UniProtKB/TrEMBL annotation:
InterPro entries to which the protein is assigned, alphabetical: ClpP/crotonase-like_dom_sf (IPR029045), Enoyl-CoA_hyd/isom_CS (IPR018376), Enoyl-CoA_hydra/iso (IPR001753), FA_oxidation_alpha_subunit (IPR050136)
Transmembrane segments: none
Pfam families: ECH_1
Organism: Vreelandella olivaria
Family, per entry: Belongs to the enoyl-CoA hydratase/isomerase family.
Signal sequence extent: none
Protein's recorded name: Enoyl-CoA hydratase
Superkingdom of origin: Bacteria
Length: 256
């Protein structure tokens, strides 16, 4: 056991090729679903530090012990957090970005096994890893925009680099829950398999990455580099974004 918490455990696993990897499992006690409360985020930070302290690891697999992956942040905490003002929100965002960046910067390949709903912050967690394997019936998305909240844990940055600006605009502005086939088509995930094959497929990806068949560093560089758009493409993406958001928001009603 590398780490044990109330919502997260990290254990050692061997891949079929004998690589020693860490398996981080979200499984919030006494709850039917996983959600990212402030306590769970704090645990995630502790778990990542424990993983960083291990010297022999060759990969990380992030998974869920429940029927869903992570349904999002704990919205019951929002009112109290927002009432504390801008400084408190900025501090929270800095903490989360530090943890997510640490996952993204681990010195070995990483993969997420998405077994069910992965929404909001849950979707932003899986965007931190180099690869993603999705169950056939799973869904991913950033529906917090329907609550008037931007995906502030990296969704607005990482998603466009994975699936392109136009697709990301539709996902984010639309707040859609996207099926596995749609996610695979745009490149949000690398494979779609039956639920019972998720772990096997994820471990295979780690083995292939360690063998050099899959370039995990190139995938990582793609997510941490500027969007490759020339000035004309930038203008087109911006105009597309304005039109799409306006279409979703509807006409502005002025008060008299």
């Amino acid at each position: 056991m590398i780490y044990q918490g109330n919502a997260i455990t990290v254990t050692r696993r061997d891949t079929p090729s004998g690589n020693n990897i860490a398996m981080l499992t979200f499984d919030l006690k006494d709850e039917s679903v996983n959600k990212l409360s402030s306590a769970v985020v704090a645990e995630l930070g502790e778990a990542v530090k424990a993983i960083q302290a291990e010297n022999s690891l060759k990969g990380l697999l992030i998974a869920s012990g429940k029927d869903v992956f992570i349904v999002g942040a704990d919205i019951t905490e929002f009112h109290g957090m927002f009432s504390k003002g801008e400084g408190q929100i900025a501090e929270m965002l800095e903490q989360v970005h530090g943890i997510f960046n640490a996952i993204e910067d681990l010195p070995f390949p990483t993969v997420t096994a998405i077994n069910g709903l992965a929404l909001g912050g849950g979707c932003e967690v899986l965007l931190t890893t180099d690869f993603r394997v999705m169950g056939e019936k799973a869904k991913i998305g950033l529906p917090e925009t329907k609550l008037g909240i931007l995906p502030g844990w990296g969704g607005c940055v990482r998603l466009p680099r994975l699936i392109g600006a136009d697709n990301a605009i539709e996902w984010i502005a639309g707040g859609t829950e996207n099926r596995a086939d749609a996610a695979l088509k745009v490149g949000a995930v690398d494979a779609v398999v039956a639920a019972e094959q998720l772990e096997e497929a994820a471990l295979d990806i780690l083995d292939r990455a360690n063998a050099g068949e899959l370039d995990y560093q190139a995938r990582r560089d793609e997510k941490t580099s500027p969007l490759k758009l020339n000035p004309i493409e930038q203008m087109m993406a911006f105009e597309t974004a304005k039109g799409y958001v306006a279409g979703k928001a509807g006409p502005i009603t002025r008060r008299r």
